[in-house]
Amino acid sequence: MKKNKTLGEFIIEKQAEFKYSSGELSKLINAIRLAAKVVNHEVNKAGLVDIIGASGDTNIQGEDQQKLDVMANEKFIQTLSNREIVCGIASEEEDDFITINSHDQNHQNKYVVLIDPLDGSSNIDVNVSVGTIFSIYRRITPIGTPVTMADFLQPGRNQVAAGYVVYGTSTMLVYTTGHGVNGFTLNPAIGTFYLSHPNMQFPENGNIYSVNEGNYIHFPQGVKDYIKYCQAEEDNRPYTSRYIGSLVSDFHRNMIKGGIYLYPKSSKSQNGKLRLLYECNPMAFIAEQANGKASDGFGRILDIQPDELHQRTPFFCGSTKMVDKLEEFMVKSHI
Ligand code: P6P
């Protein structure tokens, strides 16, 4: 596929792939592209203006809300709300979902968006990369009626699109609509995203594992056994340990180089830390579209039936053979 195609050109070209979409999904991706540029501008100058530091509020997770968190949340909600395609939005930073009917009195819009507007925001103060994660579904309740929680609590396999923005050494937007994964790099000089990583694929195997080993003593036995396997002097091991503490950055590196990201449950957090709906499901959809794998240790992330908006899940994601091996240790320790 020709590189240096712009994201706009790519969306138009791919529009033909959506038999039933009347261009609405393309409009939605374009809205996310615009919001990503605005957030990128703010993130890149965060060190220069007094926008760093907690806003004094805390979010539903009880985490201090960094001002950039609040700004990113507002930008994405505003940009998505202004287009007549979204009927509802759920965000890590919002306790409940938001019904969008400013221009849609008759509830004709058919997409819902779930978003982590600025994941890894605790890294902002130390100038480590952060990211935005988004997940898009068609509503399942009848058009013409107000959006309901059921529209958000869909299994991840129902996603029509998912993606992330990584605000790193360069800013990239990586997304899928179920036809593979493509990465676009922002040229900040002209504010244009260019196709830089067409058809991204996880290497089937890898030698990088990403986990917060400081929690080792709290991990389930199967995870402890897998980490020891990664560290053993055998075959092509020991593997390399790389953990940035920013999901999108660890995921992105592992997708390019091969690797596995692990966020297990622990005696400190019974269901792990990551949220199913706006972190694990979108990353799992991208992983599977890139021939990778995403598991809760025993089963497919995308098959989990959610029962609440901010629920958490253990999360193991990356090169298929590495996730397979992790699952082997989890099952073995449960026998
Ligand atoms: P810990 C950031 O807060 C995040 O949600 C992910 O981006 C990251 O991988 C993880 O949590 C880091 O968590 O407990 O290792 O600091």
UniProtKB/TrEMBL annotation:
Q: Which residues form the Fructose-1-6-bisphosphatase class I N-terminal domain?
A: 5-198
Tell me what organism the protein belongs to. Answer: Sinomicrobium oceani
Q: Give the UniProt family note.
A: Belongs to the FBPase class 1 family.
Which of this chain's residues are annotated to bind substrate? D119, G120, S121, S122, N212, Y243, Y261, L262, Y263, K273
Lineage, top-rank taxon, reads Bacteria
**Record-given protein name:** Fructose-1,6-bisphosphatase class 1
One Pfam family recorded for the sequence? FBPase
* Bound cofactor: record note: Binds 2 magnesium ions per subunit.
Q: So which cofactors does this thing need?
A: Mg(2+)
Q: Which GO terms describe its cellular component?
A: cytosol
Question: What processes in GO biological process is this protein linked to?
Answer: fructose 1,6-bisphosphate metabolic process; fructose 6-phosphate metabolic process; fructose metabolic process; gluconeogenesis; sucrose biosynthetic process
Residues annotated as binding Mg(2+) 2 are D116, D119, E279
- Keyword annotations: Carbohydrate metabolism, Cytoplasm, Hydrolase, Magnesium, Metal-binding
Binding positions for Mg(2+) 1? Answer: E92, D116, L118
